[in-house]
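User: quick one, sequence for these C-alpha cells?
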C-alpha cells in the first residue's frame, strides 16, 4: 500500500515535468524564430545604410522566411525589399527591380504551410512583376503584335493562378514536429533512470523507432509542402 501511494505523486510529478518541458521547448522555438528575424532585419538595415541593395534584400528575405504570425518584423522586411525594388525601378534598372519583386513574392511562398502569409504583398508584387514583364522585349516576335495591356494580363493570369500548399504534407509536417518533440521528452522521463542511463528493454527501442518515424515525417513535410 505504501509503495502504491508514493507512486501516484511520482507519476503526477513526471506528468507535470513533461508538460513543463514541452512548453519550454515550444517557447524556445518561438524565441529562436523571432530573434532570427530581428537579427536578419538588423543586418538588412545596416546594408541599406551602406547602399548595398543586393545584401540588404538577401537579409530582408531571410527575415521574412523566419516567419512568425503577427510579428511586425515580417511587414518591415517586406517593406524593405519593396523599397529597394522601387528604387531600382525609378533609377532605370528594371532587371534588378524585377528580381527584387520576385524575391519578395517568393519569400512569402517559401514561408507558407497550411496557409499562405502575405497575400497583400503577393498581390502588389504580382502587379509590378506583370508590368515589368510586359514592358520587357518579347523573346520572339509575335504575329499579330500583342499590346502591352494584353501581355500584362497574360502575366497576371499566370501569377495569380492559385497554387495552394500541399495541405496533407504541411499537416504531416506539423504532426511530425509535435511527435518527435513528444517522444524525445517521453524518452528522457521514461527511458532513462535518475542517473541518466538508458533503460534497456522493448519500450525504449519502440520510443526510438517512433521518434525516427515522426522526425522523418517532419523533414518530409517541410520538403514537400
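Assistant:
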Amino acid at each position: 500500500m505504501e509503495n502504491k501511494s508514493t507512486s501516484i505523486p511520482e507519476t503526477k510529478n513526471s506528468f507535470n515535468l513533461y508538460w513543463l518541458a514541452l512548453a519550454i521547448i515550444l517557447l524556445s522555438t518561438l524565441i529562436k524564430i523571432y530573434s532570427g528575424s530581428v537579427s536578419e532585419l538588423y543586418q538588412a538595415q545596416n546594408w541599406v545604410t551602406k547602399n548595398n541593395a543586393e545584401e540588404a534584400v538577401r537579409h530582408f528575405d531571410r527575415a521574412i522566411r523566419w516567419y512568425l504570425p503577427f510579428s511586425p518584423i515580417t511587414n518591415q522586411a517586406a517593406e524593405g525589399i519593396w523599397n529597394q525594388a522601387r528604387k531600382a525601378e525609378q533609377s532605370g534598372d528594371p532587371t534588378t527591380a524585377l528580381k527584387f519583386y520576385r524575391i519578395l513574392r517568393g519569400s512569402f511562398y517559401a514561408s507558407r504551410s497550411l496557409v499562405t502569409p502575405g497575400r497583400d504583398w503577393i498581390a502588389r508584387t504580382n502587379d509590378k512583376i506583370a508590368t515589368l514583364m510586359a514592358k520587357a522585349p518579347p523573346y520572339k516576335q509575335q504575329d499579330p503584335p500583342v499590346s502591352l495591356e494584353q501581355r500584362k494580363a497574360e502575366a497576371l493570369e499566370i501569377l495569380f493562378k492559385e497554387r495552394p500548399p500541399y495541405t496533407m504534407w504541411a499537416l504531416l509536417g506539423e504532426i511530425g514536429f509535435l511527435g518527435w518533440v513528444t517522444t524525445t521528452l517521453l524518452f528522457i522521463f521514461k527511458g532513462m533512470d535518475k542517473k541518466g542511463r538508458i533503460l534497456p528493454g522493448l519500450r525504449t527501442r519502440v520510443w526510438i523507432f517512433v521518434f525516427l518515424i515522426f522526425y522523418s515525417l517532419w523533414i518530409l513535410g517541410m520538403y514537400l509542402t
